[in-house]
Amino acid sequence: MATSSSPSTSTLTSSDTPIPTNGKKKDTYVLARDFKSASRLNYEHYLWHETLGFHIHPNILPFLALPQTAPSAREGKTAQDARNPPPLPRTHSLRLRIADLACGTALWATHVALSLPSHTGNAAVEVTGYDISLSQAPPSSWLPPNLHLDEWDIFSSDLPPSCSSPAEGEEEGNGYDVVHLRLLFVIIKRGIEDVRRVLRQALRLVKKGGWVQWDELAVGESYVLNATTDEEEEGQAENGEIENMAKFLQTIGEWVGQIGSVMKEEGMEEVSVTRPEEKKELVRAFFDNHLAKDEEMALRGGDKESLERVRRLAEEGSKGKAICTPKVVWVGRRKDG
User: Lowest mean pLDDT: which of 72-81, 132-141, 318-327?
Assistant: First the structure.
């Protein structure tokens, strides 16, 4: 959540400044890139996985799995049948390629690189993580051998360097089976306009028939959870820092619910949204994690008023209140053709 007194949002990059031709520019990240910030991001990753129960959406996984080959001659089929298994679907490739945009500490990308081969039956899985800065990610020698990281600004007019050599039969840049995005709220300054820009970037990278998955906080749907009444409150109480913050959050981020509409406008198919049930046992953990981010931002900006607000929010939270912000996962498929 933001602790600003106005409904403006901060940005990882400033999308209204000129983009240099080399795809890189000044890092204007409003949060820190130190060990505490990296720990916060890694903790948040585990909270998201505990909530969702998956890294890649279940709607996508069947399209990544290797198809069953024809039965062998021992099972009553001829040797010719065994040598000619059913053809792969048009959208399937023997080499799966996954991209994670704004990868941060690269933990999502790491887990996908390690787990996806067993989920799909395909050992040839390549994962690439992109971010404007890789200072929070581990050194390459500590990463799985099928994971590569590359610096790239998501608003750049250029393709990432690693896309300069497309896979055989693919358009330049369009070689990924899945492009993943998560928690871009702080870089979306101009609502739908920036959502469209981000999705167009993802579509530059994803192959025909490939998928885009965007995990985001539905900030505008935030509400107060009060342990004393065990009821959801809509943030309409007269007093209380938590209620006031919930009211503010409810005024921003309308674009999150419109991601699917933009996907369809950009020609994507099979667009759907998943809204996982909020687990009450994780509400406090998420709330504290968001407070840590707000404190980090306030310290970085020298904002004493926001620091005091974080202190008051934490104090109220210790008494059995929290702001719960729903999570959404949008998925859509690029047209095959």
Answer: 72-81
